[in-house]
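Sequence only, no structure available. Ideas?
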Amino acid sequence: MNDPRPTGSTAARPLPGFAEFVCLMAITIGLVALSIDNLLPAFGPIAADFGIEDGNRMQMLIYVFMIAFGLMQIVYGPLADSFGRRPTLIAGLGIYAVGTVMAIFADSYDHLLIARFVQGLGAAAPRVLTMAITRDCFEGREMARVMSFVMMVFIILPVFAPASGSLILALANWHMIFVSTLVLAIAIVCWYLLRMPETLHPEYRHKLSVRRIARDIRTTVTNRQTFGYATVMGMMFACLMAYIGSAQQIFETEVYGLGVWFPLAFGMIAACMSFSSFVNARLVRKLGMHKISHVALFFMTASSLVNVLIAIGFDGKPPLWLFGIGLTMTLFCFSLTMPNFNSLAMEPVGAIAGTASSMIGVYSTLIGVIAGGIIGQQFDGTVIPLLGGYFCLGVIAIVIVGITERGKFCQATH
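Reply:
I predicted one. C-alpha cells follow.
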C-alpha cells in the first residue's frame, strides 16, 4: 500500500501514514453514522419521556437530522475550496457540538428535533470534507480503493453503535448518548489539529464568490458522469435511509420483537456490509469501478425481488433467519456500489472537489432522505414496504446507469 501524498502538497508536515489516514477519514465520516445508529435503541425511552405513541413519528429523529445534513453540504464545499479543508471541517464540528449540547438539555420532543436539525447542519462538514480530502490525495481506482477501506471502517462503527447505545442506556439515560458523540467530535478536532495538514493545493484555492460557486455547480450538474452517478447514489442512499428508519420497528419491537437483542441483529448485518467494502477494496484495482458496481447493482435488485416474493409468501413476516439472510445479501451488494458510484461521480471534477462534493452530497442525500423516508413511513407491521422499496429503487438505479453509460454496462465509456 502506498502512503497517501497529495500531488504538490504545500503542507508544513507530511500526511499521516496510510492506515492512520484511512482511520481518520473513516472516524470523521463515521461520526455521522454514530449520530444516527447509537440513538436507535433510545427510541423507546425517548418516546416514553415525551409521550410519543406513534412509532413512525420517532423516525423523524433520523430524517430531520438527515435533511439538515443534506442541505448544509452545499455551504461547506465552497468554503473548503476557499479557506481550506481543515478550518472548514473544524467549524462544522463546532456547529455539531452546539447541536449536541442542545440535545443533551432538550426538555421536549420538538426541542430535541430542533437540536437534531442543528446537529445535522454541523455533521454535513465531515461528509463533504472527507470526500474532498480523499479526492485531494487520490483519483480513479485508487480513490475507490481508499474509499472502500474508509467505508469498511466506517461501517464497522454501526456494528457496535446500537450496542453502545444500549450499554449507555443500561448505565444512564438517553442524554448520555449525546454526551458520547460530543466527546468523539472533540477528539476528532484534536486529531486534525495534531496530525492532519491542509491538503488543498494552492492552485485549486478559489476566492469565495457567488459567480464562481454558480459556475462550479453548473460544471458539476452538467457533467453526464457526475450527475448520473450522483443520482444513482441517491437511490442507493435511500435504501440505507429506509433500512435505518425501519430497523428498530422491524427487529426490536413490532415484527420480530428481539428487544435487547436488536443491536446484535443490526450489528451482524452491518458487519457483512463492512466485509463487502473490504472485498471491493481488494478487487477494484483489478476489475474496475464500473464492472463491480454494475454487477452488484443487478444482483441487489434481483435479490430484492426474491426477498419481496418470499415475504409475501409469509404474509409479510418471514422467519427471522430467512429475512436476515435475504437482507444481508441485498446490503452486501449495496456496499459494493456506494464507494464506486461516489468515486465515479467525483472522478471528472477533481479541480473543484470541494464544491462538487457538496453538490453531489446535497443532491444524493436529499434524494435518499425523501425516498427513504417515504418508504420508511409506509411501515405497516411487515417487512414488505422495505423490501418492495429496495426493488423499486434498484430498478430505477439500473435505468439511470443505463442512460448515463448510454446502454453500455460494466465498462468505462467516459
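Residues 140-171 form the longest helix (32 residues).
Hope that gets you unstuck.
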